[in-house]
Amino acid sequence: MIVIDASALVKYILREQGWEKVERYLLEKRPLYSVDHLLKEVCNAMWKYKVERETVIELYRALNRLIDADVIVLESELSYLKVALEIALKYKVTVYNALYVAQAINRGGLLTCDRKQADVALALGVKVHLV
């Protein structure tokens, strides 16, 4: 099983360069897993990149369709917070990123665009899919 982080899902949602690689995982490796924090991070990225209001609403609906169709299965971040905090402190990464790594330890793999997060996951024995 593979955990998708916000960096990978943002790449797909905003159609950033290489988004097709993420799409292949969404189509072929489903369900992907993530912590419920994912939704907040993706919405924040749409705001940060100043996407038009109407487009944000469309993208949010598309994001919800991925969840509703069980393409991405969300789990409570609270289940992983203690381990994530330990990872963040040891490897000097944000707790936000460490949440995905903590979940990936449990699930087996991590889909990310974040090189530092990938390195931490690899150090902890997680199979990394870097896109």
Describe the protein's architecture and organization:
By secondary structure, the protein is α/β, with parallel strands linked by helices. It has one domain: 5'-nuclease (Rossmann fold). Helices cover 60% and strands 15% of the residues. The chain is built from seven helices and five strands; from the N terminus they run E-H-H-E-H-H-E-H-H-E-H-E. The strands form two sheets. Strands 1-4-5 form a three-stranded parallel β-sheet. Strands 2-3 form a two-stranded parallel ribbon. Helix 6 (95-107) packs across helix 7. The protein starts with a strand and ends with a strand. The mean pLDDT is 95.
Labels describing this entry:
131 residues; alpha/beta; Rossmann fold; three-stranded parallel sheet; 7 helices; 60% helix; globular
Low-confidence stretches: none
Task: Please state the structural category.
Answer: alpha/beta
- Determine the oligomeric state from the structure: single chain
Shape: globular
CATH homologous superfamily placement: 5'-nuclease
Query: In total, how many beta strands?
Result: 5
Overall radius of gyration: 14 Å
What is the topological layout?
Blueprint: E1 2-4, H1 6-13, H2 19-28, E2 32-35, H3 37-48, H4 53-68, E3 72-75, H5 81-91, H6 95-107, E4 109-112, H7 115-123, E5 127-130
Parallel strand pairs: 1-4, 2-3, 4-5
Could you give a short description of this structure?
This protein has 131 residues and is of the alpha/beta class. It contains 7 helices and 5 strands.
